[in-house]
């Protein structure tokens, strides 16, 4: 048997947190860049007016198409990063189960399933923070996945309105 097995598992477990942090930061950075790009181009589209009407329509459709492509790319990258985050969660849960650790990966899964986390508001000894009674507080994040999907489609319809209807935003 490999004597370094537990150390290897613990190193993989540590790497899990670094991976989760990396993919989360990457997703939010890409989202910010794309939303700024789309947001800058969106009000410009209705104002596009060139000499020929066919060229105006083509230019508006092209600009809207570039924005729409950026939205799709952002969403696909978000989904891919979400997939890798879930791979990290599953791997960490497997390691916690194998090492019999009730750690953050299981707490994350339980919070996700329950759609809430009960914060104990106590320090490591169990004493309440700030000298008050340790009343549990419920915290719920909800599903950001649905929110991201809604944002993408709201921006897509805004592009449609700006590029094809000519509505000024």
Record the SSE blueprint.
Layout (H helix, E strand, L loop, with lengths): L4 H37 L11 H46 L5 H11 L2 E3 L17 E3 L4 H22 L4
Antiparallel strand pairs: 1-2
Keywords: Membrane, Transmembrane, Transmembrane helix
Protein name: Membrane protein
Write up this protein:
With 169 residues, this protein is mainly alpha-helical. It has one domain. 69% of the residues lie in helices and 4% in strands. The protein contains four helices and two strands; from the N terminus they run αααββα. Strands 1-2 form a two-stranded antiparallel ribbon. Keywords: Membrane, Transmembrane, Transmembrane helix.
Short description:
The protein has helices at 5-41, 53-98, 104-114, 144-165, and strands at 117-119, 137-139.
List the defining traits of the structure above.
mainly alpha, two-stranded antiparallel sheet, 4 helices, transmembrane, 169 residues, transmembrane helix, elongated
Q: Domains counted in the coordinates: how many?
A: 1
Question: Kindly state the mean pLDDT as a whole number?
Answer: 78
Biggest sheet architecture: 2 strands, antiparallel
Query: Low-confidence spans: pLDDT under 50, at least 5 residues?
Result: none
Binned, the helix content reads: 55-70%
End-to-end separation: 67 Å
Strand order of the largest sheet: 1-2
**Order of helix and strand elements from N to C terminus:** HHHEEH
By secondary-structure content and strand pairing, the structural class works out as mainly alpha
Q: Estimate the global geometry from the Cα principal axes.
A: elongated
